[in-house]
Amino acid sequence: MSENEQWKSDLEWLLENRYPGRGGYTALADDLDSDHVTPVSVHHWATGKRKPNYENRRALLLLRERISGEINKGGGTDGTMDSKRP
User: Fold this and answer.
1) 58, part of any domain
2) Within 10 A of 45 (CB to CB), how many other CB atoms are there?
């Protein structure tokens, strides 16, 4: 998968699994931890109006890896461990 396709895949995965619905763009923008990423930026990326720069593509990849690692360790999609309680 090319780098151009990778960030789209990462963004789609994040929006579907960790940041769905109302407030998802805002929460994702906050978690990317960049002063230059706003909910409008995330909206533009998701709709194809703009593409994230290299730093933001890298941040999307790292955030996806971190979250998917939490899920694989037994946490729920919201980052809690409730899904594994007996």
Assistant:
1) yes
2) 22
